[in-house]
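Hey everyone, long-time lurker, first post.

I ran two proteins through the pipeline my lab uses and got sequence/structure pairs for each. Pasting them in order. The first:
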Amino acid sequence: MSAMALPLDQPWLSVVGIGDDGLASLSPAARAVVEAGEVLVGGRRQLALVAHEGAERLAWRRPLEATFDDLEARRGRRVVVLASGDPMCFGVGETLARRFALEEMRVLPAPSAFSLVCARLGWSRGEVECLSVHGRSPDALRRHIAPGARLIALSHDGGTPDLIATLLCEQGYGPSGLWAFEHLGGGAERRVEGTAEAWPEASCAALNTIAIACVPGVGATAWPCVPGLPDEAFESDGMLTRRDVRAASLARLAPLAGQRLWDVGAGSGAVAIEWLRALRRGQAIAIERDPERCARIERNAQRLGTPEIVVAQGSAPAALDGLPPPDAIFIGGGLSEPGLLERCWQALPQGGRLVANAVTLEGEQALLAWRAKVGGELVRLMIARAEPVGRFDGWHPAMPVTQLAAVRP
């Protein structure tokens, strides 16, 4: 096809969702865009679905963003990016929208794998948690596993269904229903189904999507996403913000979608992990100087479904240099370290939250002095637990915790 001048009011970059049955899956408008394209961009599988001899073809390079410069070089031509299903649903459209201005793009989606699976199983799309383990750790599924939950996940490869079956059994959810859908919407569509504990040991097609109907087995544990997990949920050497104090600390940290936490002196990582569990989209950096504790944080994060946690080994405040900026900071120890409170306060944006806990007199003095400078709410948390006293029960008090919660004006 010869090059044509692009109308000034027409975006040069089109992102077209295409199904497994190729051009037959496209609407007339989407098909016209593909057929008029001068440059077709996509994975090798998507490009193979379209017979268009007149167009230049570009396959994605790794990393994906390396191809974006190639797109820039073709600005002003009719560039069509082919994507699986809905490009804005865990797809390349999301990444392109961060690189190119919205007025330069148009997106024509096809039904997503999530919509097709819901249609096959009769599930309500609004009642399903939609996830992706493509290029991501499957451990992220763990925080969504709960009695009665319905999950749909985009696979990484043909071995992902086996991995998820094993993961469910490890969580005590062996009776859960499991479906692997191959080549959804195409002529080769097929499903494999069973339970996690009786899952057939066979590799599926690389292009597959997994549905899970969570059913707990005997003795399964259901961890809520509301902060305040039991202390025994975390592997720890004793450096752990205890359950009741942790819940109070997270309430004042106020996790908000898309925000980032610094957990300074993270110990076992419990505060950072619970921050992530409470959010759909959140980030957390656990700063810890002890290498064994850093490894322990990573194990806790994997087991509790937050493998995206970032562990930064080093001593604060020096270890904070160069980290992405936080929206909230928790300091669980080390308050007597010179310059720590000042460095953390300076890192916060307007409206950023600082929560710091102290159990020593020296730490408490640091909080009193800091409150005199910046204000904030100072509380003392005193927890007592009923424990046996001879034949009876009595209250056994834990060490009181002094907590400062301040918001940067």
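...and the second, right after it:
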Amino acid sequence: MAHALSNQRILKRALKEALVETLQEHRELLHDVLAEALEDFALNEAIREGRKTARASREEVFRALREKS
């Protein structure tokens, strides 16, 4: 039993070290993944809020887009 616990600790330590090393070496990838997840969350929230409001006509949408640019 003690041997199994020792092996679990060794495995846990090795996994932590591998994860830390991977995150350090691939920071840009982690940043991209988190940014994508936040964008997806924000889009989901915008859609949910949009469903609570009245529909806009095509012209109203394009007018609003022209005003923003």
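Reply from user beta_strand_b:
Welcome! Quick read of the second one: The CA atoms of residues 6 and 12 lie 10 Å apart. The two ends are 68 Å apart (CA to CA).
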